[in-house]
């Protein structure tokens, strides 16, 4: 179990450049299986989950050439489907959530796709019904081995269909799209998720020769094609990292510039931080956060009632930033209700913040009320364990704002999604060391 030691209470300063988007990378990498031609991808983040997926592709026989930092060429012209039946695949396939998106492209191109129950954060029930109901609609037969938690779909041929998804699942939508692009005829997906990750995936698939319309809406129309070809694709900056750095700057009263954020794709993120009273300035394509020397004040709703920040499928506010919002609110002036609608086990980490002196009432598994300290009382350093990727970074932000030295165990969770976080934070003045 890896550990960070963090000496908090110091201001940070400078520039930080976001890595390529983790959740986009996981979709895009699976899409390389859809063609036997070369796919060049840039801005791939060097993080544990992405590297695990690259390793899975390599074991599937995909040829991989590294061209420079974050740039790779992939060619799936000799895919070894036997690997899918190996014990090694059962072990490696459950190492991350993103591996589930291997199924759609394999089914679309080779008529079969298998996956063990995928890993990822333990933040609640993470069912896969939407994915498999979509594949079944396209004509696949479905098998599930309950003992081994092993899923399989097979089809002689996929045929386009109309579907209304039971929920706007992000990975589910990506998976169904990747199967439907090579199906015969027209597929419509209503209640499709439309996160920037999915917009990017559709743009990439269209540049490979797919025919997808409705991109960025919740109604996609996909006219199947016989074959897809190569392309070049560049990943967006990671909007969850960007949100994390906004929170970090505010909570440590630091002046920070977040470089090349691709403002147009940030949706509600800057405004939600503004509702906490944080100044988020647009400077070209950068975000500038001034030092909040006098703190920041949470806005009420127009009628004076207490602000609620909740998650919703895109273009709603992403659930992946609610833990960050919550920790930043602990030092604001005012109160806020955080409502995590999607995941039922994602707020339990507030116990650690309460131990550090934060004023939080966990109302139920989905809701927490935060009463900010307005920096009149700082958080106290402590020892904690990172339960999931975003809670881990929230605890890290809390530790950087706290007086004294904190210890965070299980930092593998953080490394899943944040590239060399300790090195990059040290470059802007953070006192953080990796001790094991
Ligand atoms: C690898 C990857 O891309 N992971 C992201 C992906 O996970 P993932 O694709 O696994 O998440 P889903 O979108 O399927 O669903 C997430 C949770 O929200 C619930 N749900 C979903 C849609 C909906 O309309 N209503 C609803 O309640 C689901 O039941 C589930 O509990 O999307 C999640 C939701 O943005 C993010 O937290 C994850 O970081
Ligand atoms: C929940 C997340 O990741 P995963 O879906 O990979 O567990 C996340 O990125 O916040």
Automatic annotation (TrEMBL):
<feature type="binding site">
    <location>
        <position position="342"/>
    </location>
    <ligand>
        <name>UDP-N-acetyl-alpha-D-glucosamine</name>
    </ligand>
</feature>
<feature type="binding site">
    <location>
        <position position="320"/>
    </location>
    <ligand>
        <name>UDP-N-acetyl-alpha-D-glucosamine</name>
    </ligand>
</feature>
<feature type="active site" description="Proton donor">
    <location>
        <position position="121"/>
    </location>
</feature>
<dbReference type="Pfam" id="PF00275">
    <property type="entry name" value="EPSP_synthase"/>
</dbReference>
<keyword id="KW-0961">Cell wall biogenesis/degradation</keyword>
<comment type="pathway">
    <text>Cell wall biogenesis; peptidoglycan biosynthesis.</text>
</comment>
<dbReference type="InterPro" id="IPR050068">
    <property type="entry name" value="MurA_subfamily"/>
</dbReference>
<dbReference type="GO" id="GO:0008360">
    <property type="term" value="P:regulation of cell shape"/>
</dbReference>
<dbReference type="InterPro" id="IPR005750">
    <property type="entry name" value="UDP_GlcNAc_COvinyl_MurA"/>
</dbReference>
<keyword id="KW-0131">Cell cycle</keyword>
<feature type="binding site">
    <location>
        <position position="97"/>
    </location>
    <ligand>
        <name>UDP-N-acetyl-alpha-D-glucosamine</name>
    </ligand>
</feature>
<keyword id="KW-0573">Peptidoglycan synthesis</keyword>
<dbReference type="InterPro" id="IPR036968">
    <property type="entry name" value="Enolpyruvate_Tfrase_sf"/>
</dbReference>
<keyword id="KW-0132">Cell division</keyword>
<dbReference type="GO" id="GO:0009252">
    <property type="term" value="P:peptidoglycan biosynthetic process"/>
</dbReference>
<dbReference type="GO" id="GO:0019277">
    <property type="term" value="P:UDP-N-acetylgalactosamine biosynthetic process"/>
</dbReference>
<dbReference type="InterPro" id="IPR001986">
    <property type="entry name" value="Enolpyruvate_Tfrase_dom"/>
</dbReference>
<keyword id="KW-0963">Cytoplasm</keyword>
<keyword id="KW-0808">Transferase</keyword>
<feature type="binding site">
    <location>
        <begin position="22"/>
        <end position="23"/>
    </location>
    <ligand>
        <name>phosphoenolpyruvate</name>
    </ligand>
</feature>
<dbReference type="GO" id="GO:0008760">
    <property type="term" value="F:UDP-N-acetylglucosamine 1-carboxyvinyltransferase activity"/>
</dbReference>
<dbReference type="GO" id="GO:0071555">
    <property type="term" value="P:cell wall organization"/>
</dbReference>
<protein>
    <recommendedName>
        <fullName>UDP-N-acetylglucosamine 1-carboxyvinyltransferase</fullName>
        <ecNumber>2.5.1.7</ecNumber>
    </recommendedName>
</protein>
<dbReference type="InterPro" id="IPR013792">
    <property type="entry name" value="RNA3'P_cycl/enolpyr_Trfase_a/b"/>
</dbReference>
<comment type="similarity">
    <text>Belongs to the EPSP synthase family. MurA subfamily.</text>
</comment>
<feature type="domain" description="Enolpyruvate transferase">
    <location>
        <begin position="7"/>
        <end position="420"/>
    </location>
</feature>
<comment type="function">
    <text>Cell wall formation. Adds enolpyruvyl to UDP-N-acetylglucosamine.</text>
</comment>
<keyword id="KW-0133">Cell shape</keyword>
<dbReference type="GO" id="GO:0005737">
    <property type="term" value="C:cytoplasm"/>
</dbReference>
<dbReference type="GO" id="GO:0051301">
    <property type="term" value="P:cell division"/>
</dbReference>
